[in-house]
Amino acid sequence: MTDSNPLLQNFDLPPYSSIRPEHVEPAVDTILAENRAAITELLEQHAEAPSWAALVLALDELNGRLERAWGPVSHLNAVPNNAEFRRAYEACLPKLSEYFTEIGQNRRLFEAYKALSSSPESKGYDVAQQTILQHTLRDFRLSGIDLPEAEQQRHGALQMRPPDPARP
After folding, report:
1. What is the rounded distance in angstroms from the CA atom of residue 28 to the CA atom of residue 94?
2. Are 19 and 6 in contact (CB under 8 A)?
3. Taking the mean position of all CA atoms in its chain, how far away is CA 52?
4. Which partner from 25, 66, 104, 119 sits 20 to 30 angstroms from 91, CA to CA?
5. What pTM, to 2 d.p., does this model score?
């Protein structure tokens, strides 16, 4: 399915007419698995002395690939919305929530960003790079990275809980 799945191919413009509901979940599963493996490898190779390219740009590329696949899915769910696409879209939402919760609570990734932020290399970063580091570290904290383990797990569970339409 990888070879024939348009969401797993390189494209300049999304191939909307080729994307089918049965492509969605396998594409998301594939990209999430590949991202998780790549993050593990990245941390094994660069956690001690991360660089901008090896950490920030690498993670940005991984998440960019996910967004490139998910963007057209979101659009197709919103515009020609049908029951099959809605089911495929909704089947992936918990997977995406779990992935981004994992990222936000990944202690090794947080420590790598902290190490980069306090590295001699970071002193030469421009304002945009400094801001990206500050916002990323803030986002880790907002994801509960500094909470005790039990509270961090509870925070993660709450983040992954589907929205309650009765709650404002």
Report:
1. 11
2. yes
3. 18
4. 104
5. 0.87
| 9, amino acid identity | Q
- Please name the residue that has the structure tokens 């997977």: 95
CB 34 within 8 A of CB 76: no
The full DSSP string for 111-163 is HHHHHHHTSGGGGG--HHHHHHHHHHHHHHHHTTTTS-HHHHHHHHHHHHSPP
Residues 6+ apart with CB under 8 A from 132: 56
Give the length of the chain: 168
Q: Are 122 and 130 in contact (CB under 8 A)?
A: yes
CA distance 31 to 152: 25
